[in-house]
Amino acid sequence: MKAIFISYNQALTERIDAMLDEYGVRGFTRWTPTEGRGSFTGEPHYGNHTWPAINTSVLAIVEDEKVAEVMNAVRAIDAEIEMQGCRAFVWNVEQSM
Q1: Which entry of 32, 38, 44, 91 is 20 to 30 Å from 84 by CA?
Q2: Residue 44 CB neighbour total at 10 angstroms
Q3: Is 62 helix (H, G, I), strand (E, B) or coil?
Q4: What residues does 91 pair with on adjacent strands?
Q5: Are residues 62 and 2 in contact, defined by beta-carbon separation less than 8 angstroms?
Q6: Rounded to the nearest 5°, which phi and psi values hold at 58?
Q7: 75 in Cβ contact with 4 (< 8 Å)
Q8: What pairing do the DSSP bridges indicate for beta strands 2-9 and 86-92?
Q9: Is 43 exposed, middle or buried (0-12, 13-18, 19+ CB in 10 A)?
Q10: What pLDDT is stored for residue 41 in this prediction?
Q11: Confidence band, pLDDT 50/70/90 cuts, at residue 42
C-alpha cells in the first residue's frame, strides 16, 4: 500500500474528485483549506488579501498497482493548469487497519 498526498488549488476540487473516481480511489481524507507555495514557481496560496488563492489537500491510501496511473493523472492535470498548482507525493504505508 502507498499513501498519495495531493495538494492543489481549491478550484481543481471537482477535477481531482473525478480523477480519484476514475481510478477507483474511494477512501481519502481531505483538508480544506491548506496553505502553501511552490518550490520553484507559482504564487503563494495563503488565502489572504495579498495572496488570495487557497489550496485543498487529499491523502489517499491506494494499492501499489494504482500509484503510477494516479500520479500520471495528477501530472496531466498540472500540465494543463500549471499556474493554479497541483502537486502529489507518495509514501510507503507500513501498516493499516
Answers
A1: 91
A2: 16
A3: strand
A4: 3
A5: yes
A6: -130, 140
A7: no
A8: antiparallel
A9: middle
A10: 76
A11: confident
- The Cα angle at residue 42 between residues 41 and 48, in degrees rounded to 5: 140
Beta strands (DSSP E) in 39-85 are: 55-62
Q: What is the mean pLDDT of the chain?
A: 93
Tell me: pLDDT of 44 over 80. Answer: yes
Question: Could you give the count of Cα atoms lying within 13 Å of 60 in the half-sphere of its Cβ?
Answer: 23
Residue found under cell 507555495: 37
Each residue of 55-94: pLDDT tens digit? Answer: 999 999 999 999 999 999 999 999 998 777 889 999 999 9
Look at residue 17 and tell me whether its pLDDT is greater than 90.
yes
Report the pLDDT value the prediction gives residue 37, as an integer from 0 to 100.
84
Cα torsion through 77, 43, 37, 6, rounded to 10:
-10
What's the rounded Cα separation, in Å, for the pair 61 and 77? 20
Q: Which residue has the cell 474528485?
A: 17
Provide the grid cell at 62.
Answer: 491506494
